[in-house]
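User: structure tokens for this one?
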Amino acid sequence: MRKVLLAVLAFGLAACGTAGGEEPAEVSGLSVNLSPQQNRVTAAKDDTIAAKVPEKFRTKGELVIGGSAGTAPPLRFYATDDKTVIGVETDIASLVADVLGLKPRLEVASWENLFVGLDSGAYDLGLSNITVTEARKEKYDFATYRLDTLAFEAKKGGTWKVEEPKDVAGKVIAVTSGTNQEKILVDWSAANVSAGLKATDIKYFQNSSDYYLALQSGRIDAYLGPNPTSAYHAATSGQTEVIGNFSGGAAVQGKIAATTKKDSGLVTPVQEALNQLIANGKYAEVLKRWGLSDEAVPTSEINPQGLPKS
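Assistant:
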């Protein structure tokens, strides 16, 4: 079994044991199973919660869960066979399906096509680091399961830190198009220009390999993305470091949520399944498995306050 050993870092990857029969790490750090044989944490069906699943989903006997796989670990990515989708998002998706008594079917889509699939009904549920926003709440229902924390990642060894908007003035920073981190960066740049500072030169990349190559070659100063992926990459590559952390909601605490088409009837049983998993410790076990215990929520909420409209 292939393993990656992560150092214990100040920005949030806690040392822990392993789940599902994996061997523990031999040194202080996190042992991550990257093989197709995930030995995922599992949960029992709850008949009361399962009965609340609308009939059109129950009759299929499966829960079709969409998500992207172009991000870096530990969110949703490919195992060592380059075809099996693994990560914290797939583990949580599988646990929810267990409680609902449905077989999880994990589908892969680009970020844009994930929402197209939810709109068309091709996907019953989206679990792909999706942040709750007021605009998205007009089309989708949400059941939260993780805090949304962002990170600026730069080459290791520099002195530059990002603590406030003025720190990105004049910098070249990469971001993925259509994400909330893009909106935050655009807003920060506009505020800096209004204050007489230089604009941020924003570059767009869709694949992690592209922005990491740009970072190492010096074409960008930093990448702004989900904290889990940046923390994981910094720990495993030894070439980069996190130079600033922020809520994905800027002034509002951003929250990551399981996403369903609005009024599909699925969000309530999904939320109840998540709360049961939080209560029985299965949820914490999965987060610990992937080094994300710091992003845990105490309870799942349906359609909480989201990031404001622009």
